[in-house]
What we know:
Mg(2+) binds at residue 424. It contains 20 helices and 19 strands. By secondary structure, the protein is of the alpha+beta class.
Amino acid sequence: MQLPETQVAVLRAADAQSQRDVTDIASEVGEQPQAVARAAFELEERGLVDLGERTEAEVTLTGEGEDYAADGLPELALYEAALAAGAAEEPVSLGRLIGEAGLDGDAVDIALANFARKGYGTVDSGDVTVDADADLESDAELQALETLAAGDAVDDEAVLDQLDRRGLIDRDERTVRSVTLTGDGVTALMEGVEAAETVDRLTPELLTSGEWETVEFTDYNVEADADDIEPGRKHALREMADRVKDVLVGMGFQEMQGPTVDADFWIHDCLFMPQDHPARTHWDRFAIENPGKIDDVPDDIVDRVKTAHSDGVGEDGEGYHSPWDEDFARQLALRGHTTSLTARHLAGEALGDLEPPQRFFSVEKAYRNDELDATHLLEFFQIEGWVMAEELSVRDLMGTFTEFYEQFGITDLEFKPTYNPYTEPSFELFGRHPETGELIEIGNSGIFRPEMLEPLEVDCDVMAWGLALERLMMLATGAEDIRDVHGTLVDLEYLRTEEVIY
Length: 502
């Protein structure tokens, strides 16, 4: 009997008395597991082998788990430091032990939580006592980590559950295929099996030489199961950003770009935000270790902005009557919003002087020191937009939002008046989540105040907004937690299967 070379190798490697895994055969014959699986399916069709399938749990260490397997668990380090400090006889200060155990950051909380859970001792009012008879060498979690690091299996499901809760392992399932030689297969081997000279693809050389007419081509089983392949794809949030850009360009807007790190002058001062505003402190934004200063801010704009802050604009204008520091304004900062791009464009610094009407937008990242939750991230995408024209009103702004969000199937917008230092009137936008029914804030907007526009020498109306791309995606797709989409807790299966709604 003549068979393709790979089929011959698989047939000879198979056993009639026991099942052999495809991966083991692949390693033995020097082929890829996919090729061996394909050959096994073809042999099964000929009745020469039987194919079996089973599902196996696969456990692998996370990066944190690998570190603990090599260096030990934080709670054990705390115990050892406490025992060495005499905490078995009398309480020892926790602050002292943290330093001696070499713990810092999240490791401190991890150590404390598991120290007491495992009965290694107690922590009371900042003092630590330990059980001198505790057996650290029998710590089941550390033993399991070391076993997994060595490539061996752990059978204790309770321990694996605990390691999973701690984020020290990843658990997955994989399909294992096995091959068993049939009676016909044994007979074929006894009668003799030879590798046929077959060709598995048509090449330019075969065509030009004419050999394609005489060679034997490999048979392909188009019904055979194939391994799952998960190709790379564009991130769902990036797809949503591209969709937003398409919609806004279709509405007549031009895209604008600008620096992520910019002078505080463009980020806040031009927006008529006082220099002691909470949003300009490190409670709300991130600090730059060596911020430096920017020198290319036009002096005439600086003077007009300073005057607006100090004295206001117009006969009835009121400034803040508080100190204004030009050095502070020129310091570089990581933007907490993308309205700095709008300020640069309105001032003529980006594209030169602009005459109305104008429409611009951007979909860029901003950074804030927020509390992480289902709708907040430390870095996020803001949909910045503005329209410059004569005699704009809130109705124009609301109509723009209605048209924009209808493109994503969102028709139940709600508006709430609010306060912004740079817009008056101002209002926030809300949309209702399609799955939870919760009303979610999705943006902020308004008509720019004279105190912002006049220093930039803009003498017509400008309406502007900052919308949240991530929250738009939540309303459009039904995602309930933005951390599943973007960040360190991302749900990879969601990203592989989610489709952006057009």
